[in-house]
Amino acid sequence: MLINAVVIILREVLEASLIMGVLLALSQLNLVSKSWCIKGLSLGGVLAVFYAANLTIISAVHGGVGQEIVNAGLYIFIFIFVLTIIYSLRDKQKSNVTVAAMFACVVLAVVREGSEIIVYIQGFSTINELFAPVLIGSSIGTGIGLSIGVFVYYLIVNLPVLYGLRLGFFVLVFIASGMVSQAIQMLLQADLLTSQLPVWNTSEIVSEQSFVGEILFAMIGYEATPTLVQVVLYAFSILLTSFMAINSIRCIQRRGLS
Amino acid sequence: MKNRSILQVLFLGLLWGSLISPVSATPVFEIEIRNHLFSPSELSIPVGTKVKLLIKNADPSAEEFESYELNREKVIPGNSTGVIFIGPLNKGVYPFFGEFFPKTAQGNIHVD
Questions:
Q1: Which among B73, B81, B90 has the least Cβ separation from residue A197?
Q2: Where are the domains of chain B?
Q3: Does the complex come out with an ipTM higher than 0.90?
Q4: pLDDT tens across B41-88, in order?
Q5: Whether the model pTM is above 0.95
Q6: Distance (Å, rounded) from C-alpha A108 to C-alpha B26?
Q7: Please, what is the end-to-end C-alpha distance for chain B in angstroms?
Q8: Sorting pLDDT into bands at 50, 70 and 90, what band is A211?
Q9: Does A194 touch chain B (CB under 8 A)?
Q10: CATH architecture type of domain B24-111
């Protein structure tokens, strides 16, 4: 049960931790205030408790697919805010917008991942013999997840500025597109988008259950059996975010690297 | 002119209808979670058909219905019922499990 708790919590923490690590590093490189991080974590934590406490009611909404609608909404808004960050970073005058969007991203990511962690741990609170191993496993999972975020942060800020900037934007492009893919997945699961047969199956090459598959899922939103809608919208969001990221890097270069 | 706008409305309606599929014709299958076990743990559904799964969690603790093969993942709080749409699917066996109690909560969906 301990190992299982490590894996489950690591998966949840990893996504939020990656987003925070990259955004903190981009703030550092662009000399933007990092005050959003603690504020975002706090508000996200409170809202995650609220979401977890009301999950049964929320799930029952709209014929039993309320959870999917809320989650798809969270993913779509994270995508929109990441786009905002990519755009606003190009202009020093827009640093207020950047800070606000980073704050919003962290709040939403923590609500999404935090609520699942709360529901998971809460479920074991009544099972005495499993509660301790679950808590220990969860702590280890949180530790590993946060360490990866910290590693990404230091990797980006310690590279030469231009390379750090490029890597930061590169990771953001994939995080944003992964959000689109997950939002579509939720809408398919809720039957709000018509399901289709998958266009390919790469689970023989990289299984989603494997360690590499999990890391790829957190970083680029890897799906072994995507549907056509997912592939098309994923490709579109990669193109859109890459185009915006390249433009922003050029603008930052032109105005002079800090 | 009026006929044309009626046709346009009809066309848009059809287009919308094809995007947002009707719920009424979807077959429903029930799975219960009790003592961290799925019942039935083996379920057969038809090929190429969209299906609505009603997953009733009779345990007090939450469970997460998860399947990599089906691309589905949903937390079902304790003592509640979750809805998941799956399919249309090709012929095959699609394993699923409860992520919170993966040792006991296991099952397969047979598409045939």
A1: B90
A2: 24-111
A3: no
A4: 999 999 999 999 999 999 999 999 999 989 999 999 999 999 999 988
A5: no
A6: 33
A7: 50
A8: confident
A9: yes
A10: Sandwich (2.60)
